[in-house]
Every structure is written in structure tokens, then in C-alpha cells.
Amino acid sequence: MNFGALLFHEDREKPQMIELRSDTFTMPTPEMLAAIVRAPLGNDGYREDPTVRELEELAAARMGKEAACLMPSGTMANLASMMAHCICDKNVVLLGDKSDIHIYESGGADLCPGIVFSALDTQADGTIRIGDLEREFQKWRDGSSSKIALLCLENPHNLCGGVVLPRGYVRAVADFVHSRGVKLYLDGARIFNAAIASKTDVAEIVKDVDSLQFCLSKGLAAPVGSVVVGESQFVGRVRKSRKILGGNMRQAGIIAAAGIVALQRMVDRLEEDHINACRLAEGISAMPGVQVDLSTVQTNTVVFRVVDERFSCESFIASARRYGLNLSEFRYGRIRAVVHHGTDAEQIQEALRITAQVLEEGPVEEASYCAESHA
Ligand SMILES: Cc1ncc(COP(=O)(O)O)c(C=O)c1O
Questions:
Q1: Closest ligand 1 atom to 22 CA
Q2: What is the pLDDT of residues 197-226, one digit of tens each?
Q3: Lowest-pLDDT range, 136-150, 190-204, 256-270, 299-313?
Q4: pLDDT above 80 (res 194)
Q5: What is the mean pLDDT of residues 78-84?
Q6: d(C-alpha 358, C-alpha 363), whole Å
Q7: CATH number at residue 342
Q8: Same-domain pairing of 317 and 257
Q9: Closest residue (by CA) to atom 12 of ligand 1?
Q10: What is the pLDDT of residue 366?
Q11: Are residues 62 and 195 in the same domain?
Q12: Which numbered atom of ligand 1 lies nearest the CA of 187?
């Protein structure tokens, strides 16, 4: 769909495909496009773009932190944050072995010679056990020239199915690392989904972490952008890292304008996505040949397994696609459906009808498949 069509509401009839591969398929809303057209602009490399500054102030206030920095993507936000937290020999980053940073982004981080990663077991609920952290701290204390700088958590945890970390757990981990002089960072790509699911103000959810990034371009439906928030000095270092990584932007107010609308208008409606995700999960769980753990359906993500032996993951996805439903492969033999602003209750019903039809008819022949996607 082109910009003009979106702006002037042309061609807005429902798309042919039901797109549940990811919430990154959301289109900017007409309000976002109008805000982009009207946005006052300047050179953000000189800190002179008023719309970027407005977004950053809004984001920092919303999260209850001192400062914020607009980033082009969640991946760069994570990397710039880790670079900013690692200083001299305090350069070890602990993270979960199922975290987005470890599984999908560590290639970029490996290019930063200053950072040493250590991946710990991720539990099914997205947590890392405090006992495992204790052992890890012991390991790095004994005669190592590097010291632990940072622990990264992810909330909601994407690969664990969008589950929300318990607040008491985050507090306990924060106490544990802070008492050892280590910072706590949160990959909060979908942190507003966690806040809505927990019926808690987002600032309360992130109160115990030192810094975080959240994405504007996922469930909040902005076309581009993530924001890093934290203490002013840390955010200053993030800005420097962003520049090194080539992420310095100029008239970035065109991105920030949509981001402001995302923060002001798109947060509360995430509840609708969560309700639709539950409907979808409950419908699928009632079908023979598929398994869904309903306890993991806490936000906008539904993860399921096809146990009907006629299908492989790939052939199930290809068959659903043939009938107009786009799903994605999600590692460990699982399939993922993500509900978003572009999905309404009627499409959820249709998605269920297609899933039932695929299960009834078996795999379509010559089912060709599309690559794994996670974002
Ligand atoms: C939890 C999490 N963190 C970070 C990212 C990376 O964000 P981006 O695609 O904007 O680089 C993703 C992408 O899906 C994600 O799910």
C-alpha cells in the first residue's frame, strides 16, 4: 500500500491475506500520516529536531526515567545500550539463551570487540533463575580480567510466547544485581503489551530496571523506530554509540511524529489485541491435531504446535497460506500467530475457519514455504 493511499484513505478495503506473522506488519494510521506531514523538523544530529525532542521527552516521562534517545530499530537500541553500559574492563553482558538479543542479534554485538556475552538458561516463563545468576557471578569473580557490567532481561519474552515477567521477579533480580554493582537492562520491545496485560502503569513495570528500549514499530503501529530510556548520562553515551553504529538521523521528526501518536493513541487499544489473541488461542486449542499452552497467551502472541502427523511445521504454514492465512515458523517446531492493529475480530474468526479447514483437508501438495521470521 502506498503513502498516498494510506493518507487519503484510498484502497482501505480489507487485505486478501490475514497477516499474523508479526505485529511488525502494522501500517501507520491516518493520524500518524497527518502528524508526519505537519511535523516541525530540524537536524537531529545537532539535537535541533523539535519533534524528536518532543517524542524523547514524552517517552522519558512515560517511563519515569531521566532521558530518552530515538533509535532507528530495536536491534540498534539494544546494541547501543549494551555498548553504553560496558565501560573498560566492566564489559560482560549476561543474558538469557532464548533472548532476542542472543538468538537474533548477537551477530551485530559480536562485532563490538569490547563486549563479552554470557548466555544463561531461560526458563519457560522467560525468567533466568537467581541461582544461575549466583553461579555466574561466582564464575566471573574468580580471577577473570573482565567484570560483569550488565544483566539483560526481556519483557514480554518473545520466544517464550510473549509471556510477561512477574514484577516480584524483576524486583528480586534488580536487588540481586544492584547489590553487586551491576546494572539491569530491559529489552522491552513490547513493554506496553506487558503493562496492558498486567493492568499496571508502564512506569511501575520498568521502575526497577536502570534502562530499557521499547519499539514504536510493533504493536504500537508506527512505521519505524525504537526508544532507549534511562539516566541522562547513560542516554548521552547511547547517543554516541548510535552515531558509531551509523544510526545518527537528521530530519527524524518524520519518524518521531508517528511515534508520538503511537504513544498517545495506540497503547490502550493493545487490550483489543490481547482479547483477540485469547479468542484465537482458545479456538485453536479446541481443534484436534494442535497443541496450545493457554497459560502462555498473555499478550498478543499465540504459539502452537501441530501434532497431527500428516503435517510438518512448514507444510502447515504453507497450507494455511494457500487459504489466506499468514503464520510464521517459531523455532523448536512451533508456529506463531501475532495479533495486531491490522487484525479485527472478524479476521480472527476467519483465521480459525482456515485453521480448521487445513486440519480437515491435510497438507496442500507442492506446499512451498517461506523462511522463518521472528520480528
Ligand atoms: C524482543 C525483541 N527485541 C528486539 C527486537 C528487534 O527489533 P527491530 O526489529 O526493530 O530491530 C525484536 C524484533 O522483533 C524483538 O521481538
A1: 14
A2: 999 999 999 999 999 999 999 999 999 999
A3: 136-150
A4: yes
A5: 96
A6: 7
A7: 3.90.1150.10
A8: no
A9: 375
A10: 58
A11: yes
A12: 3
Ligand 1 site, CB within 6 A = 73-75, 100, 154, 158, 187, 189, 215, 217, 226, 374-375
Provide the residue range defining the domain that includes 355. 3-24+269-361
Q: Map residue 19 onto helix, strand or coil.
A: strand
> How many A from CA of 35 to the centre of ligand 1?
25
Q: Which residue has the cell 504446535?
A: 305
pLDDT over 80 (residue 142): no
In angstroms, the CA 256 to CA 182 distance is 32
Alpha helices (runs of H) in 116-231, residue ranges in sequence order: 130-141, 167-178, 191-198, 202-205
208 and 111 in a common domain: yes
Q: Which of 265, 298, 324 corresponds to the end of one domain?
A: 265
* Minimal-distance CA residue to ligand 1 atom 7: 74
Helix, strand, coil tally for the chain in percent (to 5): 45, 15, 40
Q: Which of 238, 265, 292 is the last residue of a domain?
A: 265
Q: State the distance between the two ends of the chain, measured CA to CA, in whole angstroms.
A: 20
DSSP state of 128: -
pTM over 0.85: yes
